[in-house]
From TrEMBL:
Residues 1-27 form the signal peptide. It comes from the Bacteria. Keywords: Signal. Pfam families: SBP_bac_3. SMART domains: PBPb. Residues 49-279 form the Solute-binding protein family 3/N-terminal domain. This is ABC-type amino acid transport substrate-binding protein. It comes from Leifsonia shinshuensis. InterPro entries: Solute-binding_3/MltF_N (IPR001638). The keyword Signal applies.
């Protein structure tokens, strides 16, 4: 799912090219961590510093502000800084390839993965995780049509685009079956190899709507202002993003309590809003 979203950022109509493989200490800017003499909570591999593995190729969760290098921004990046600030320690973002995130955590190269990872059963067998955001499919359409799509049944009979072989395409296929079993018209699902092509299908009038993961959808809309709009609450958010730590690590309880505090004081909701995300998706336990 993360790699599919990365293709959004590389597409011509949407994109900021996101790449690179450097790491750097971040004492915090907006929503950032601040330097402190405090050692922080038990379990940090470097006392006084929260070290987080991150793959900055998934806007709006984590990406390079200038496109290719420099400051890493996004909900997750700012969330790392906010958690470090809450603990009174520095934030160190270690850029890691997506497939290297969990191995790096397990080898103690970083304290946490705060970077768009689903809390799956397989991951929870090898690592601890604290929920940070609700995730799942959502519907994007034109501003003129957005108010007319308020429920699943409103999609029956429409042409809906999705990336080929994606979980979003499967969701629409299943919904189309429900439409026909209820005596309504089937959904005309059109699948495209690239996510950017699903956007162009709606913009160019070849599709009435497209299905995409909610966090990627937010970025699509910001990159196509006036042409796209999210039709909210049509599909259920059925997955959860988590902040991962090593299994049984002394740091795990502090992550859970730290995220709870940032949720309670509105910090996480504020960061979400800054990046075009619905603040309500941070209300997760």
């Amino acid at each position: 799912m993360k790699k599919a979203a990365a293709s959004i950022c590389l597409a011509a109509a949407l994109a900021v090219t996101l790449a690179g493989c450097a790491s750097g200490s971040d004492a915090g800017t907006a929503s950032g961590g601040t330097k402190s003499s405090s050692a922080g909570p038990a379990g940090l591999i470097h006392p006084g510093k929260l070290t987080a593995c991150i793959d900055p190729e998934y806007a709006p969760l984590e990406y390079y502000k200038n496109g290719t290098d420099g400051d890493i921004v996004g909900f997750d990046a700012d969330g790392i800084r906010a958690l470090a600030k809450h603990w009174g320690v520095q934030a160190d973002l270690v850029v890691t390839s997506f497939d290297g995130l969990m191995p790096q955590l397990q080898s103690s190269a970083c304290d946490v993965i705060f970077g768009g990872l689903y809390m799956t059963d397989a991951r929870l067998q090898v690592a601890d995780a604290s929920a940070v955001m609700k995730a799942g499919p959502t519907i994007i359409t034109t501003p003129a049509r957005a108010g007319k799509i308020t429920s699943k049944t409103d999609l029956c009979g429409l042409t809906v685009a999705a990336q080929a072989a994606s979980s979003n395409a499967l969701t629409i296929k299943a919904l189309s079956d429900t439409c026909t079993s209820d005596g309504k018209k089937a959904i005309n699902l059109v699948e495209y190899p690239k996510t950017a092509e699903t956007v162009l299908a709606v913009v160019n009038g070849k599709a009435d709507a497209l299905a995409e993961t909610n966090v990627a959808a937010a970025y699509m809309v910001t990159q196509n202002k006036g042409q796209l709009k999210i039709a909210p609450n049509v599909l259920e958010l059925d997955t959860t993003f988590g902040v991962f730590s090593r299994k049984g690590d002394a740091l795990s309880p502090s992550i859970a309590s730290g995220l709870a505090a940032l949720r309670a004081d509105g910090t996480l909701a504020g960061i979400a809003k800054q990046y075009g995300l619905d603040p309500a998706i941070t209300e997760v336990k």
